[in-house]
Each structure stands twice: as structure tokens, then as C-alpha cells.
Amino acid sequence: MKGEITQAQALLDRANTIVIVAHERPDGDAVGSLNAVAICLENAGKQVTAVLADGVPGRFLFLPGAERVQQTIPTECDLLIAVDCSAVERTGYDLESLPRRVDLNIDHHPTNNHFGVINFVEPHAAATAEVLFDLSSPLGLQIDTDVATNLLTGLVTDTIGFRTSNVTPKVLRVAAQLIELGAPLAEVYERSLNQRSFVAARYWGRGLSRLEREDGLLWASLTLDDKKSVGYPGRDDADLINLLSTIESAEVALIFVEQSRGKVKVSWRSRSGLNVARLASAFGGGGHEQAAGAIVAGELEEVRARVLSATRTILGSDSDRGGK
Ligand code: 5GP
Ligand code: MN
Questions:
Q1: Which of 27, 40, 111, 163 is the most buried (most CB within 10 A)?
Q2: Whose CA is nearest to atom 10 of ligand 1?
Q3: How far is it, in rounded angstroms, from Cα 291 to Cα 148?
């Protein structure tokens, strides 16, 4: 770790133009971590471009730095940093369109495949924002109020308001320090977790009208037609999966979101200690033990049948229960 810090410091010192990228269909940890690194490096005198293949979702536009995030990735830079991406494909950009190999890979997914030249991957961290908080002092990066607000958003959203089982006393101490640095907890919580748009609520309605349940599995689907008819602008599920996972008797909740004809985004949430990351990996995705996702090729109905069947098999399997 110490050698990697020194190596990263040398790369950062030498670089002038820096590109930072997070994952497609970005969540609060992706946007918050991206903005936090961008602001720190800009304050350190670097020329920084922050990019997201899908842009910043509306509910994170209040974050400092969000207005400067681009969708077009520059063709050249001195240093490329990826945050909250478990694999380089998660950036949502074609490999050929990246300006160079990823130099710094900063993440907290256990399924991270160490694609960077230097990899700061901490699977026990509750969010990439926590990894960044820990790296800030060794890398000599200053956390001002704007950076703190972004990092707190990463922590609040990835832990769904400090409710997940990976919330340790240390996570709460980090959050407390971020609040001391000026991050507005109540506003972050309200804007990034509580509030949703009218169209997102109607989109939820479409999905909820198709809610199904069987043997400890609970699932809903969102079609391209739902997205179009309510006018929902994103390619994500508007966080409906987190609502599904609150419904009683669901050991595993799933959502199927049609992305385009022949491509479906699947999300799993497990409440019972079942390892859904392994299942997601088997479908070419990844994530955390209790929250994972994958893009699966096939028509919606066919993908749903295949994924439900595979998920049913782990319900009865002890090796997927509580295993790492
Ligand atoms: P969600 O299902 O809410 O998109 O994501 C849940 C978790 O799984 C997150 O940690 C996310 O980064 C990860 N995840 C979601 N989709 C994919 C995917 O297509 N590939 C990989 N490797 N991880 C994913
Ligand atoms: Mn994250």
C-alpha cells in the first residue's frame, strides 16, 4: 500500500491533464466520488475533465462540480483515473475510445478485477467515497466543503442512509468528520435519497403494477415502453429496486430493466445473507454480496426466466449463504 501511495503521488505530480471517469447509469457514489476527485485535483492546480457516459442524473445535479461533468471523453490526457468501477467496461465507454490505460483504479467492489496500473481497491469499505477519504491524507489532497459534500453523498447513497450491514463505527466517524468539514447531511439525505421526480414515481408505478413473488423471490420489470410512456429520461430503475428490497418475505428482490431490444439490466438485492455478487458475476456482472447487477443479453421475458431460475437455485444452497 505504501509503495502504491508513493507511486500514485509521483504519477499525480507529473500529470497536468487528468481525466476522471465513473460508471455508467451512475449512482450517488459514482457521481460523488467523481466530483470529489475532480475538485481536489483542480484545487491542486491540475487541468481536470470529469466524464460520465450517461451524464449526471437529475437528483445529483445539486452536487458541487456536477455542472461540469461531460459525456464526451477526451482523446488524450496525462493520467486516467476510474472511480467506483469494478471493471473497465463499467465506464460505459468502448475500450478503444479511452485516452489511455487506466492509471488509478479506486473502488470498493469485491468483484474488482484490478484493471488499473495502480489499484486502490478496498472491498470492506462501504463506498468508494470512504476509500477516497482514507486516501486523501496520504495523497496530500485537501477535503474542502464541496469535496466533503460529494463524499458524504457517496456514503449516504451506497449505504441507503447508513442502513446496510457494512456500516461500521468507522463509517459513521468518517461521516461525522465530513459533516464537521461542512457537508450538509440533511440536505444530502433529502436530495439524493428521499426526493424523486414525478416521472420517476410514475415509472415506479409501471414497475409496481407488475410486481410478482414466488418462494422467497420478489421481482418487477420495467420495459422500454414504460420509460417512453411516462417520459423517464434515465436508463436505470429510478432506484425502484431499493423499494422492492423493503417488502417483507423477499429473501432476494430483483428488477429487470429493458435497455434496448435484446439487452436487459438485472439488479439483485439480498436480505438474507445470500451472496448475489457471485450470481451476478456468472451473468457477466458483479457488485457486492447483498447488492449486485449485470447486463444480460436476450429479450426481457427470456432473460427474466433464465435469471429467476438461476436465482432460485441459490436460495436452497448453503454455499451461497454467508459465503464470501
Ligand atoms: P445496481 O444493481 O443498483 O445497478 O448495482 C448494484 C451493485 O452492483 C453496484 O455495486 C454496482 O456497481 C454493481 N453492478 C451493477 N451492474 C453491474 C454490471 O453490469 N457489472 C458489474 N461488474 N457490476 C455491476
Ligand atoms: Mn459504490
A1: 40
A2: 287
A3: 25
